[in-house]
Amino acid sequence: SNKMHKQIENKNCTECHNPHGGENKGMLKSGSCYDCHENFSSKYYYLHGPVASGNCTACHDSHNSKSRKYLLQDSQQLCLHCHNTEQIFNSVSHKKVKKNNCTECHNAHGGGDKYFLLSLLKQSINSKNDSISKEKPLNNLENDSSLNKLIRQK
């Protein structure tokens, strides 16, 4: 069955929408998602583009979604709608994970490194490779052999 936010079920449209217009898709009030949901800009150093711009509707449909978290599509399909499929799967880091959901390794909203890697994955990489510090952002992951070993273990 389809899911809707409570404001929609209760027909409280103006809690999220400006009936006189707006800058966002669907006349959403700027920042209205953050009235109820966590503002990730204060949580993460790096933000996913739609999150940084407050464009939650690039990935979420609060009115009529069948998927969890009100996503427009399933995880990998959603990510690959914008991210270049060929470029992603040709990188060394992703060669073995074509059937995995992106969110198994990446946080869709942001993170402490530019790849938005989940902390458990970062800790595992760090424990396997002493040259990567937990304090500094992870760079050049395409060439990181410990990440490739971790992915192959799945």
In terms of structural class, how would the helical and strand content be classed? mainly alpha
Backbone shape: globular
Order of strands in the sheet with most strands: 1-2
Major sheet details? 2 strands, antiparallel
Rounded Rg? 18 Å
- Provide the β-strand percentage band: under 5%
* Mean pLDDT across residues: 77
Helix content: 25-40%
Span between termini: 32 Å
- Count the DSSP helices: 6
**Which residues sit in consecutive blocks of at least 5 with pLDDT less than 50?**
129-154
Task: Please trace the helix and strand order, writing H or E for each element.
Answer: HEHHHEHH
Overall number of strands: 2
Any key phrases for this structure?
2 strands, mainly alpha, 6 helices, 154 residues, disordered C terminus, two-stranded antiparallel sheet
Q: Any overview of this molecule?
A:
This protein is mostly helical. It is 27% helix and 3% strand. It has 6 helices and 2 strands. It has helices spanning 6-9, 49-52, 75-82, 85-90, 119-128, 145-153, and strands spanning 46-47, 110-111. It has a two-stranded antiparallel ribbon with strand order 1-2. The longest helix is centred in the C-terminal third of the chain and has 10 residues, at 119-128. It starts with 5 loop residues before the first helix and ends with a helix. 13% of the residues are buried.
